[in-house]
């Protein structure tokens, strides 16, 4: 990890200072725990701690966004299903009608399936991998039917769960729909749609470069570095009270206007959340509707969702399109099934097939190889989706702490995992996740 000592740059508000200190403390603790075991999934369940239980809870039982404790492990295991209690949000609404229920064909054999984790000598069972990865919810669809569904920790079928950067793939799908419908031109620059981005790094970045994250911007997302621009971005989007006299950007959009260019765009893939936020602004300007409104109109109200989702907003009510969505397990599976069927839902084509086909075709592997993802060899990134480029043509939406919607077209399979892993980076759990998904896919294909 990079040096985590405070240098001459500090957050621009009291809330930012508290958040930084808490996350730095968490980083120090996690570094120390590299040499010992974390609390296990069972030991870290929120029911063991009594957080937020009294009225009001005592100080030592309080979890808060203001002091950053909501992202501290194991408090994270409670906060992932309670984000709406911690941060301002806007709703993503389903149709006012009974939800469209799934058919069930539960398969008891899945728990006992075995696979070999990367660089391991001993096999692991599917069931063992769930606890290993601090799984909160797991659902598997095969040909549209639920063959596996399970809930753990503080999650159950009535709750919504934070999906973090899985949000980006919803936004990328909306962009793809608009491109296919001729309402958004991927060859136009960001400043064409959003004049406020003139003189920022995004001024001459095309919509395509933003959606594929091949922009070159002065922006670090290294949470262990107090000088990283991610802290300024987070502070700008923080809807909590800022320090008196704070003159820094207020709101995600205001921050985007300050981002500087680092080099020529379109040369390499670099994963940076500001791209997804810029995409959200472009989409909003192209349609005159917010991301939350579009998700409600184009997806949530169309495929029989059973729960209202919510999306974090900044002090100006702008949705966090880079990672603010919370949604139910089965509803996320419905979206995955919609994607697997290339926009078709129970015989109705909700958007052109080319939206999904563009994603499945992927992007430049060479550009992706220049990124900092050595474990994902041969992958690419398209329309804010991760493309595995494996033989099954699998692609995925991925979020920190272990969130995923994993779609395997060859196996007719959709996997949704919700989790609260102690470490934010997906690289921490890929070794016991990706081979597990492939094991289930192989089993389901042989089962036919």
Can you characterise this structure?
31% of the residues lie in helices and 14% in strands. It has helices at residues 14-33, 76-79, 83-86, 126-132, 166-180, 190-193, 207-211, 230-237, 252-256, 273-287, 291-300, 329-340, 354-360, 365-369, 430-447; strands at 89-92, 114-115, 124-125, 135-142, 145-151, 161-164, 309-312, 325-327, 344-345, 348-349, 380-382, 385-387, 395-399, 403-408, 413-419. Among the domains are: 14-86, no CATH class; 124-183 and 288-447, Beta-lactamase (3-Layer(aba) Sandwich), CATH 3.40.710.10. The strands form four sheets. A seven-stranded antiparallel beta sheet has the order 5-4-15-14-13-12-11, with helices on both faces. It is of the alpha+beta class and 448 residues long. The chain has 15 helices and 15 strands.
Q: What is the share of helical residues? A: 25-40%
Structural class label: alpha+beta
Q: What fraction strand?
A: 5-15%
End-to-end separation in angstroms reads 46 Å
Tell me the name of the CATH class of the domain at 124-183 and 288-447. Answer: Alpha Beta
| Low-pLDDT regions | 1-36
Shape summary? globular
Largest sheet: 7 strands, antiparallel
Going by CATH, the architecture of the domain at 124-183 and 288-447 would be 3-Layer(aba) Sandwich
Mean pLDDT: 91
Please state how the strands of the largest beta sheet are arranged side by side: 5-4-15-14-13-12-11
What is the helix tally? 15
H/E series, N to C?
A: HHHEEEHEEEHHHHHHHEEHEEHHEEEEEH
Oligomeric status:
single chain
Topology-level CATH name of the domain at 124-183 and 288-447: Beta-lactamase
Radius of gyration based on Cα positions: 21 Å
Number of strands: 15
CATH superfamily of the domain at 124-183 and 288-447: DD-peptidase/beta-lactamase superfamily
């Amino acid at each position: 990890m990079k040096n985590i000592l405070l240098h001459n740059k500090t957050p621009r508000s009291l809330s930012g200072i508290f958040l930084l200190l808490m996350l730095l403390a968490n980083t120090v603790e996690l570094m120390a725990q590299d040499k010992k075991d974390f609390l296990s999934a069972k030991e870290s369940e929120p029911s063991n701690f009594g957080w937020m239980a009294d009225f009001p809870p005592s100080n030592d039982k309080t979890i808060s966004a203001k002091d950053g404790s909501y992202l501290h492990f194991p408090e994270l295991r409670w906060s992932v299903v309670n984000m709406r209690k911690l941060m301002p949000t806007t709703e993503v609404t389903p149709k006012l009608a009974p939800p469209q229920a799934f058919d069930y064909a539960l398969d008891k054999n899945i728990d006992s399936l075995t696979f070999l984790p990367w660089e391991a000598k001993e096999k692991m069972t599917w069931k063992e991998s769930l606890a290993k990865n601090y799984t909160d919810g797991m659902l598997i669809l095969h040909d549209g039917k639920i063959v596996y569904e399970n809930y753990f920790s503080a999650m159950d079928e009535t709750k919504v769960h934070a999906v973090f950067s899985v949000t980006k793939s919803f936004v990328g799908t909306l962009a793809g729909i608009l491109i296919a419908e001729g309402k958004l031109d991927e060859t136009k620059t960001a400043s064409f749609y959003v004049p406020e981005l003139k003189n920022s790094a995004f001024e001459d970045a095309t919509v395509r470069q933003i959606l594929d994250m091949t922009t070159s911007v002065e922006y670090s997302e290294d949470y262990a570095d107090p000088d990283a621009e991610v802290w300024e971005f987070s502070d700008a989007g923080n809807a909590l009270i800022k320090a008196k006299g704070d003159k820094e950007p207020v709101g995600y959009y205001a921050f985007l206007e300050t981002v500087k260019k680092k080099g020529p765009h379109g040369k390499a893939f670099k994963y940076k959340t500001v791209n997804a936020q810029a995409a959200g602004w472009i989409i909003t300007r192209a349609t005159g509707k917010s991301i939350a409104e579009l998700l409600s109109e184009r997806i949530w109200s169309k495929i029989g969702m059973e729960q209202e989702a919510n999306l974090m907003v900044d002090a100006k009510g702008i949705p966090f399109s880079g990672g603010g969505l919370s949604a139910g397990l089965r509803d996320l599976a419905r979206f995955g099934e919609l994607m697997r069927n290339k926009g078709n839902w129970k015989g109705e084509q909700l958007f052109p097939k080319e939206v999904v086909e563009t994603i499945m075709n992927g992007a430049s592997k060479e550009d992706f190889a220049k990124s900092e993802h050595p474990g994902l060899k041969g992958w690419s990134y398209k329309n804010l989706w991760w493309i595995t480029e494996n033989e099954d043509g699998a692609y995925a939406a991925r979020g920190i702490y272990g969130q995923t919607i994993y779609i395997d077209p060859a196996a007719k399979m959709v996997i949704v995992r919700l989790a609260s892993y102690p470490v934010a980076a997906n690289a921490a759990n890929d070794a016991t996740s990706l081979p597990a998904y492939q094991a289930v896919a192989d089993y389901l294909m042989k089962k036919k």
